[in-house]
Design brief:
Mean pLDDT is about 85; it is low at about 1-5. The chain is mainly alpha-helical. The longest helix is centred in the middle third of the chain and has 23 residues, at about 185-205. It has helices at about 10-15, 20-30, 35-50, 60-75, 80-95, 120-130, 135-145, 150-155, 185-205, 220, 255-270, 280-290, 295-305, 310, and strands at about 160, 165-170, 180, 240-245, 250. Helix 12 packs antiparallel against helix 13 (about 295-305).
């Protein structure tokens, strides 16, 4: 990795003061997520270092174009990565520096490949689950059974699990949209037992003067004690207490994404699945298996939280039996296939 992507300690001291703090303050006023904040700060820092630590106010479309083109030409980043960097710089200029950048037609674009999602068969999903245990098994089952993204599963709070209606309320999903999805009845009893153990942990934290959880947006100020309530606790809490980066309070956050990512990757290897498998793979499996079972595509769109049905339609390309019912002409032949003669 080149020096641009790994700024030194001296670079950090040079860049740390005003501008990056202004960016952080602006992002937090607009309720951007902490992940987005970290990503935007990362790309703004790289942009400044790329141009010899010049202040962005002294630069403009020419420098932005040069930086983004370098990402594509020399560093060979993916199209999504280049777009991420562009979004960060557009935010910097428009929201922080209050400078409108003209559209930059001269940017050398990274090519965006049209890729299909990795989807496992039901039998392969079962093989992976056979190598998962305890909480990681429950979490992965919930991602598959409800079509959740990894962050949605980790961010699930106790109050958003409705056992009576058999549904989950996903708060602040992608695009800051809420939605309702199905709670698999097969998981209901296991999830209730899990929450009973989590509640004991929460009660133990309260006795120690802890037991607080981070609240979204301004709820921390509006309801100062809501973070102590059982309903606001994460369904899959971390094993340790941490300091909240915004408030400085000691809180118990949800478990780290890498915990589940590593467990799923290991389980897939043990199940001898040669394709790359991540927690997000099971969200793809959820949609595909529903469509294969005959579920209406609009229903699947709603459960997945897709803004446009065209996004959901990508799964019709990876179904084992596409909706149009096409069979290969080779499958219409009678009798067994004759092997080709061996080549000497």
């Amino acid at each position: 990795m080149d020096a641009v992507s790994t700024p030194s300690a001296q670079d950090e001291l040079t860049l740390k003061p005003r501008l990056l703090d202004q960016v952080r303050d602006s992002l937090r006023r607009r309720h951007y997520s902490l992940r987005t904040e970290k990503v935007y700060i990362h790309w703004i820092r790289r942009y400044i270092l790329h141009h010899g630590k010049r202040h962005p106010a002294e630069m403009g479309p020419v420098e932005v174009t040069a930086f983004l083109s370098d990402l594509a030409r020399r560093q060979h980043v993916a199209a999504s990565t280049q777009n991420q960097a562009l979004a960060a710089l557009l935010y910097l200029y428009k929201q922080v520096l209050e400078v409108e950048l003209p559209w930059m037609d001269d940017i050398e674009r990274a090519k965006r490949p049209a890729r299909l999602p990795t989807v496992l068969t039901i039998e392969e999903v079962q093989r992976v689950f056979a190598h998962l245990q305890g909480t990681t098994h429950l979490m992965t089952s919930l991602l598959y059974g409800a079509g959740l993204r990894l962050t949605e599963g980790l961010g699930l709070r106790v109050k958003d699990i409705d056992f009576d209606r058999g549904q989950l309320v996903v708060r602040d999903g992608k695009g800051q949209r809420d939605r309702v999805t199905v709670l698999p009845q097969r998981l209901a009893a296991t999830l209730q037992d899990h929450l009973a153990r989590v509640q004991l942990l929460h009660e133990s934290d309260l006795r120690l003067g802890l037991g607080r959880v981070a609240l979204p947006f301004a709820l921390e100020r509006k309801y100062p004690n809501a973070g102590l309530l059982w309903g606001w606790q994460f369904a899959f809490p971390s094993k340790s207490i941490c300091t909240h980066p915004y408030t400085g309070r000691q809180v118990r956050h949800h478990c780290h994404p890498k915990t589940l990512q590593r467990a799923v990757a290991q389980a897939a290897r043990q199940a001898r699945i040669c394709r790359p498998v991540s927690p997000h793979t099971f969200r793809h499996c959820f949609a595909t298996h529903l469509l294969e079972a005959g579920t209406d595509i609009r229903t699947v769109q709603t459960l997945m939280g897709h803004k446009d049905v065209s996004t959901t339609m990508i799964y019709t390309h990876v179904m084992r039996q596409p909706g149009i019912g096409v069979r290969s002409p080779l499958d219409h032949w009678d009798g067994a296939m004759q092997p080709a003669p061996a080549v000497d």
